[in-house]
Structures are given as structure tokens and as C-alpha cells.
Design brief:
Elements (H helix, E strand, L loop, with lengths): L6 E5 L4 H12 L3 E6 L2 H12 L5 E5 L5 H15 L4 E4 L14 H27 L5 E6 L12 H21 L4 E8 L5 H8 L4 H10 L9 H12 L10 E4 L7
Parallel strand pairs: 1-2, 1-4, 2-3, 4-5, 5-6, 6-7
Bound molecules: nicotinamide-adenine-dinucleotide.
Length: 254
């Protein structure tokens, strides 16, 4: 098993990519902290992991609130005695151009998607580097942080920021044995996408259009993204830090 004796926090693990990652980490031997704002969905993920006779606890957190994040890290260390891996996976989406984005919406997207990653790293890194042990951070960015995608400006900016944040942490904490990398998924079959599609005038057509713009001609599966996160979180990637891994069916290669 690739994560034996590792303790991992996965934010947004109540759904989609986060849930797939949490279940995969559990199967690989990690003690998993399922951190989510939604207790019901988070507990469902915990039950899935425990159903495989693996270790998991739920922590309710709003990643945009510093005191919540501090408590999440404290609860993890109290439960499992240490913290090895942090997967910053929470992300919320907004479809709007600059002109159509309200100041409140801008602040909310940036607070959750970017400040949330900053806060989780800020409070996790000191625990990781205690005693010289080190740790691993995997941030979940997006193809939208690499290329411009129409009418989702706040989301695009938040995801570009995650790439810069990842690189900054990688160079600032390499000497402390902390690796930080970023996985950039392409459009993946989760509620974030199905809810956005359901708001389109013709959801089936909107879906076909999303598939057709990528060389793979299909959407990604949460497990396909989780597999990249697992690689970067595991000891199979000791020399990878500051890396940006696209898993997007070739979208950003075009
Ligand atoms: N699905 C895609 O097509 C896609 C593509 C590129 C990048 N991503 C990124 O992947 C990540 C996961 O996306 P997903 O599609 O699995 O999302 P999802 O909507 O299925 O799940 C997100 C989870 O985050 C939780 N959450 C939301 N706000 C929170 C907060 N403030 N604090 C704590 N938890 C919170 C939700 O309750 C939910 O369980 C996001 O960062 C997203 O931007 C997704």
C-alpha cells in the first residue's frame, strides 16, 4: 500500500474528486480526515472508507474561515498524532464575466477557492515540519488556471492563484522536506459540473459541446483525477515539487 501509516486531510471530501481521493487514500492505507462544510455528505464518505475497514474521521470545516481551519488541523493531530498529507480540493464555481460578477460573488469565490488553500497550508505546514518530518501538499487547480475559459473570471483567477501559491510553497519549504504540487483537472463528472450543465438551456447539447472541445472527446472521471493526486501525495514522487500536472483529456495541450 502506497500510503501506509500516513495521515491525510482531504478538503471537500464529501463529493466528487475529493470523495474519490479519500476512498482511494483509505484503500492505500492512509488514516483519512474527511473535511467538508457538508456534514451529511462528509459522513457518507467516512462510511464508504470505514466500510472497507479503513480509518477515517469527519471534520466540519469552512476552509475560508481561519478558526475553522486551525481547528481542522488540531482535530487531525489529536485524532492521529501527526499530519503527513494535505489535499486542498475544495472549489466552488461561478459562471460570469467581469461585468456580470458581483463584488460579493468575487469575494466568495476567491475566499473559498484561493484563501482557503492559503489558510489550510498556513496551519498545516507547521505540523508537517515538526521534528523535521516534512509532508506533502497537493492542491487541486483546474485547466481554467492554465488557459482562459469564457465567462468564469473569478473561478479562473482563483485557479491561476493556486498555481502561483503551489510554486511559492514548493520553493519556500523544500528545505523543510515539504513538497507542494498541483493537479489541474479538466472537466470531470461531478456535481459541480452536472449542476452547471443542468442550468444550460439544453443540458444534453451543453454536455456534448464540453466533450467535443477536448481531444479525448469525453469528460474525466473523479477516480482519474484522484489517481494523479495519489501519485503526487505518495513516496513514488519524491523529486516532484512545484509541479503542475494536467489531467484534462488533452484540453490544455491544444
Ligand atoms: N469537476 C470538474 O469538472 C473540475 C474541473 C477542474 C477542477 N475542478 C476542481 O476540483 C475540485 C473538486 O471539484 P468537484 O467537482 O469534485 O466538486 P464538488 O462540488 O463535487 O465537491 C466539492 C466539495 O467541497 C465542499 N465545499 C464547498 N465549499 C466548501 C467550504 N467552504 N469549505 C469546505 N468544504 C466545502 C462541498 O460540500 C463538496 O463536498 C474543485 O477545486 C474544483 O474547482 C473540478
Amino acid at each position: 500500500m502506497r500510503l501506509n501509516n500516513k495521515v491525510a486531510i482531504i478538503t471537500g471530501a464529501g463529493s466528487g474528486i475529493g470523495r474519490a481521493t479519500a476512498v482511494m487514500f483509505g484503500k492505500e492505507g492512509a488514516s483519512v480526515v474527511v473535511a467538508d462544510i457538508d456534514q451529511k455528505k462528509g459522513m457518507e464518505t467516512v462510511d464508504l472508507i470505514k466500510g472497507e475497514n479503513r480509518k477515517a474521521v469527519f471534520v466540519k470545516v469552512d476552509v475560508s474561515e481561519a478558526h475553522n481551519v486551525e481547528k481542522m488541523v488540531r482535530t487531525t493531530v489529536n485524532a492521529y498524532g501527526k499530519l503527513d498529507i494535505l489535499v486542498n480540493n475544495v472549489g466552488i464555481y461561478l459562471q460570469a464575466s467581469v461585468v456580470d460578477t458581483s463584488e460579493e460573488d468575487w469575494d466568495q469565490i476567491l475566499d473559498v477557492n484561493l484563501k482557503g488553500v492559503f489558510l489550510c497550508c498556513k496551519y498545516s505546514i507547521p505540523e508537517m515540519i515538526k521534528g523535521g518530518k516534512g509532508g506533502v501538499i497537493v492542491n487541486v487547480g483546474s485547466e481554467a488556471g492554465i488557459v482562459g475559459i469564457k465567462k468564469q473570471v473569478a473561478y479562473n483567477v482563483s485557479k491561476s492563484g493556486i498555481i502561483a501559491l503551489t510554486k511559492s510553497i514548493a520553493i519556500d519549504f523544500a528545505a523543510d522536506n515539504v513538497r507542494a504540487n498541483c493537479v489541474c483537472p479538466g472537466t470531470t463528472e461531478t456535481t459541480l459540473v452536472t449542476e452547471a450543465l443542468s442550468r444550460a438551456p439544453d443540458p444534453k447539447r451543453a454536455r456534448r459541446e464540453l466533450e467535443a472541445v477536448r481531444p479525448a472527446n469525453r469528460l474525466g472521471k473523479p477516480e482519474e483525477i484522484a489517481a494523479g493526486i495519489l501519485y503526487l501525495a505518495s513516496d513514488e514522487s519524491p523529486y516532484a515539487t512545484g509541479a503542475i500536472l494536467s489531467i484534462d483529456g488533452g484540453y490544455t495541450a491544444q
